[in-house]
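Worked problem 6 (solution included).
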Amino acid sequence: MKKLILIILAVSFSSLGFAQQELQVSQYMFNGLLLNPAYAGTHDYWSASVLHRSQWVNLDKAPTTQVVAIDGPIANKRLGVGLILSNDQIGITSQLEAAANIAYHLPLGAGDLSFGLKLGGSSYSADLSEVVVWDENDPVYNAANIQGQFIPKFGFGVYYHTERYFAGFSVPMIYSLDDEIIIDNSVTADYFTQHYYLNGGAVFTPNVNLAIKPSVLVKYLPAAPIEVDLNCNFLFYNRLWLGAGYRTGDALIGMLEYNITPQLRAGYSYDYILTDINDYSSGSHEIMIGYDFGQDVQIKKRSPRYF
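Solution. The predicted structure is:
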């Protein structure tokens, strides 16, 4: 039964192309580059992180994601650059992607306005032989397996931040050259679909030992319901983050991040599933390790950045 459910999900993901195609992680608020290329280099120092996500644990061929990200400022902090490497597997499909990000920072009011571009590509594979189909004449599943098809992708974003609040809008993939994986008689002209992200948040410091950071992320994908992430994280003694979130129609999320040193941090999140998949899975787990470095990393000790 578990395998049958996964096959149904995989078929839907592969044939319609309306499912979540961009990276879905719960700890995005601790590395904005995963959402928005305009975030690159918005700190005074360089930052790197490694993340692993196991979604829908105990379900056969459930989604898994690994991400390595690094970004930092250059050109007297007027520019930011970043690199994201990711491996995303969902059912019968997998993508190995590399993307370079560049952002231009413009002082505006009490903060900085950034414009970012994302240029990259993915190696896409689909093992159609693993799908059990009822209509053997369906041309979608009579096609040959796809092995390592290279697909260039382009995206952009806008991001504004001050010391106390931030807001951003991004389309991680504006356009992709995916003609080689489109079936000739497919109902859609493109396999990869634009995802639109709008997010924002603020930080409040009632006292020197506590910071409160509420945030929201709105995700829009054509032909799918709008999804909203509502989160609130609490920082105690500039050392321990504890937080909770709610993803509409999907999950309740618990998060923690511990600053082992001013440069090294580790995080974990757990998604409690609210859909029928909860009958077959124990939830989703995510671990993250981050490290900040560079000439100006000592600024972080004197004046902490909350996003």
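Discussion: The chain has one domain: 2-302.
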